[in-house]
Amino acid sequence: MELSSYKAQDLFEWVTTEGNDFLILDVRVDEEFDRFKVEGPYLSKMINIPYVEFVEKEEACVAKVPKGETVRIVCAKEGSAKYVAEILVNHGFKDVRYLEQGIKTWGNLLAPKLITSENGYQLYQFIRPGKASCSYGLIYGDEMMVFDPSRNTNFYQTFAKDHGCRIVKTFETHLQADYISGSKQLSSNTGAAIIGHENDFKNAAFEYEKAADQRIYGFSKDGPQIKAIHMPGHTPGSTSYLIDNAYLITGDTVFILSIGRPDLGGKAEEWSKLLFNTLKTKIDDLNAELIILPGHYMDWSEANQELIFADTMGSIKNKNANIYGIQTESDFIKFIEENMRPQPEVYADIRKVNAGLLEVDEEEQDVMDLGKNECAASMHR
User: Fold this and answer.
1) 3-class SS at 161?
2) Is residue 376 assigned to a domain?
3) What is the full DSSP assignment across 284-336?
4) Over the stretch 329-368, which tens digit does the pLDDT of each residue have?
5) C-alpha radius of gyration, the chain, whole number
6) pTM of the predicted model, to two decimals?
7) Structural domain that includes position 69
8) Which of the residues are catalytic?
9) DSSP string, 332-353
10) Domain annotation covers residue 74
11) Which residues pair with 229 in a beta bridge?
């Protein structure tokens, strides 16, 4: 029997479509599996048996895989999954496939979802399931703006080309710590202007346009307006972008469950005060019907029926009443301190990469960029 492979896009379709019955067999070492694994709203069966155990104890490992299952194997780079697939086929398994090029393809995958098509523009959410993050694309006429792009710049450029447009601006809601941004590369490839707040990007080793509170951005000819709203706290430069007075891209400031943690910069008390002020002077004043588009999610339960991560501001306040109900700065700082946890060590280097202060090769970027985000103040677990 000839072995078959599958792609990360196939895996996304399977784990986000009801009725698919299959088992994911992850053969990475325990440490890598515990750090980062495949997730999806309709994924119900997964086991982790490291590749080395198949090498040393083949019969015992095969016995751990339920007979008759449709098996989809995941490993770090492809070779181990292919090896284990051959073992299972030799033991009589009929439907076994391995992930092409390994887990990094899942980590870099972007899945587009149309949020709205109205008033002549289209707004898309690009879900990155491997990072539990979201970037965004706004199209009007033959121009496209992107917000918080990941390093998979080929995706954004191909998406723009397929939709008959060119990328003209790339907005950063803040200096990202959990993933490598694609803005610098997109700007180099397309000439798009990078827009970010100087409180985060003042030391950046590349040119950018300073985002200012209440500044309006637009397309070349008409189209929806984009208003920058400075919302410091997660970082001093955190800025949300209001599209057409209807959709607010919040980066890591407002999540559907929780808010962005203000301790990642090592100044927990100082930044907590900034975030508390943002909550009380800016977020509390937002229209309850405003659609919030977050930079991250914690769990697939946050997605709506279309599997888009979006919710109204009023609904989010209700879901997070324990946070939005805090009335004093001291109580808010206490809440943050009680929820603090160590951040991944790699975050410090990712910040340097995103500021253009550290250059690393593609292979090292793959390693740095892999793994679910740790950006929420409370994890709702």
Assistant:
1) helix
2) no
3) TTS-TTPEEEESB-S-GGGS-TTS---EEHHHHHHHTHHHHT--SHHHHHHHH
4) 999 999 999 888 888 888 999 999 999 999 999 888 888 8
5) 22
6) 0.95
7) 4-105
8) 75
9) HHHHHHHH--PPPTTHHHHHHH
10) yes
11) 240
